[in-house]
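#data-curation
PF: Archiving a pair of folding outputs for the training set. Convention for this channel: one message per protein, sequence first, structure tokens after, nothing in between. First:
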Amino acid sequence: MAKVNKQVKILRYDPARDAKPYWKLYEIELDEESTILDVLNEIHWKHDGTLAYRRSCRSAICGSCAMKVNGQNLLACETPMHKFKGCLKIEPLPGFDIIKDLVVDMDKFFDKMKRIKPYLMVDRPIPAKEFVQTPEEFDEIRESAMCILCGACTSSCPSLWANENYLGPAALLKAYRFVFDSRDDGADERIDIINDKNGLWRCHTIFNCMEACPKHIKVTEYISKLKTKAVENSI
């Protein structure tokens, strides 16, 4: 496999030492088919061991390596380096506090996820084996259940940048996943939780979340369905 030379600019920041974030340039040589995660590993292992970033599965499942590269939110492990021409510019997901370098604080993200009660709420007798769900009923939530909680969609949302109290696309998508689950009895309770100015109605249908989602989930479409459900509940 051919080797290529690549310039990589990474936004570095250590709150314990730095007054503000700054760009640091690296020049590396690696296989032309390398991913963005391979780029970061090359830098961390051979050039600068102080670089901080998250990674785990390398299979686009865990969502750990979500970051911003040349203006796009993406997963570093699945994105080939050759997608971008010229210098790579790698920075942490916007909209989150930086812990160090490319590692951001996800606590508020998961706190918002907890607020919508992301689990089945059942008010009927529990069956001996399982709740039966038809293929059609599962299709209603199939795509929304593919979310890996990487935060790329929420981080891409201008409404969140302007208002940190906004639940964000990921939490609202998770609400959809349970509101429209035929096995769940908590739809009305969840609609009440998200039916306010920092929930459903802070979404202005900008579609950034759909562009940023590495699983190509139609996030905006599902939030729109939630809005319709909320209006129906209020009538």
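PF: Second:
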Amino acid sequence: MQVQLKILRYDPERDERPYYQLFTLQDVHPTDRVLDLLHRIKEEQDGSLTFRRSCAHGMCGSDAMKINGRNALACTVLVRDLNFRKPILIEPLPFFPIIKDLVVDMEPFFRKYEAIKPYLIPKEAPPEDGREYRVLPEHMERIMESTKCILCGCCSASCPSLWSNPDYLAPAALLKAYRFIFDPRDGAAEERLAIVGTENGLWRCHTIFNCVEACPKEINVTWHISQLKKAALER
């Protein structure tokens, strides 16, 4: 079948402002992914089209973009799940500065991610016998969903609180803070709660649930942030 893609283009070295360009593809299969269509355009029609991708299997998060008005991974969205009877609208993630076409500057995103110290800070020395830390399954179950985050940025880019306040830590960083604060092996919960409990931290979340709808891993981000709020109040 024939499918059209309406893609937001922008090359700062050449263009004064972003603009939309329409591409038409023939012989598209309903199970083709949006990423497959972007590759075809780049290979067959316009080699200057720029976008990120890596694993192409929904694990690296690098090909996050806005597809028909929703933040998603291009490698997991199928043509059959879109309204392809009119042009499929492809745009870069909102909020983040555009570097070129569908590639945005993720440096602010990762700067906030690094601010919450996204690594295990053990509360005690590892066992002398060389074994792993022993943790009860029910304790690990509490953080399992939060470990599925692939740092694609879909949740943060969908957050109106971040749109109105660029200094807000945003959902992805807060989710990662939850992952370590509630890890029974970690000993820096107090330190991290102090980081996220600031003016531009937890309390900027207004429970809008955009992050939940945008998450390609179906993580209930808002619930995790609510648990952080409870922990901060107890602290």
